[in-house]
Amino acid sequence: MQIHDQKVPLSSSLEVVLAYTQALAAGDSQAMEALRAQDFVLDFVTQDAWGSGPLSGEEPRNFWAAWFEGFPEMDFQVTRTIAAEEVVVTQWVFTGTNTGLMPPIIETQLDPTDKTIRFRGISVYDIADSLI
Fold first, then answer.
1. Alpha helix locations (H) across 1-132?
2. Which of 31, 41, 68, 77 could disulfide-pair with 27, CB 3.0 to 4.6 Å?
3. d(Cα 128, Cα 111) in Å, to the nearest integer?
4. Is there a contact between 61 and 33 (Cβ–Cβ < 8 Å)?
5. Which helix (H) or strand (E) holds 83?
6. What are the pLDDT digits (tens) for 24-64?
7. Which residues touch 5 (CB under 8 Å, ≥6 apart)?
8. What pLDDT digit, counting tens, does each position of 61-115 carry?
């Protein structure tokens, strides 16, 4: 399966999310972008703590590019998947060391800390027309 050119059509919601999470694990924001619909919204529950809402339009692209720059070496591992025809839920663990400059994605630019973080989360993907 080629992610960039989409030469092999993705036939199921599970395949779409598998390609997306593989691109995320590889730090490939362009491949991620190719799998998102125009009305894609990135909604982090933690954004509520800062009083800001979901990210849409260019914001998800900018967020992931900054995240991958700040964590050039990372591990994103899906530990559980629940799939239906139009929705896929993944449980995952992220581990990464902040060795790169982190452009402003929430408020301000962050200098590298050389600290390793590990957190887990759940993502809910709505799928339509082979896009998230």
1. 13-25, 29-34, 59-70
2. 68
3. 38
4. yes
5. strand 74-83
6. 999 999 999 999 999 999 887 765 555 667 778 888 888 89
7. none
8. 888 988 899 999 999 999 999 999 999 999 999 999 999 987 666 566 778 999 9
- Tally the residues of the chain: 132
- Buried b / exposed e over 31-59, threshold 16 CB at 10 Å, is bbebbeeeebebebeeeeeeeeeebeeee
Q: Report residue 88: phi and psi, to 5°.
A: -130, 135
- The sheet carrying 116-126 orders its strands as 74-83, 87-97, 116-126
